[in-house]
Amino acid sequence: MASTLVVYLHGFRSSPNSSKAVKTKEAIKAHSTMSDPIHWYCPQLLASPKQSMDMVIEYIQANPVDRLIVIGSSLGGFYANYLAERYQCKAVTLNPAVRAPRELAPHVGVMTAYDSDEPFDFRPEYIDELCALQVERLTRPENYFLIAAKGDELLDWKEMVDFYSGAQQLVLEGSDHGISEYSEYLPQVMRFISN
């Protein structure tokens, strides 16, 4: 019996309650069977990139499976690159921040998450932590499936397409950073992780 662990990593200031995380979880649960179980792990990531990755790696090490798959949105896509390179596993990245240290440097300071009033402090040293996690080049592009929206208002889709050269890619005309019509593309995500 083969078991699979799907790790979903949400974006900056987001949470496991984001619509893409919830929709992916429902699709994973529908695909999971007694003979081919798929385990779901979507933690609330911490402000510290290092602590976030330490927490996820600790979970992966404590729950050995036959197959590991990571799915990441925005900053979560940056983390997914790091984990996919570390474990040489499949990754789906949704409008990923391929250069997170540069993208998040202007956001240092105290802010709130999108779905909570709880303040969190994004400290200057977290940019250094992101630099330590930066993947410069994909060693096995065939392990990756990129979904990039030309209408992303926060990140440059062309940079994503270049970074994931050689990977499976779905480039959307229009759309937005959150990929609001994500449900339409979920079957392709499921096909990629099922093969």
UniProtKB/TrEMBL annotation:
Domain of life from the UniProt record: Bacteria
Pfam families in UniProt: UPF0227
Record-linked PANTHER family: ESTERASE YQIA (PTHR35602:SF3), ESTERASE YQIA-RELATED (PTHR35602)
This protein's name: Esterase YcpF (UPF0227 family)
Organism: Polynucleobacter sphagniphilus
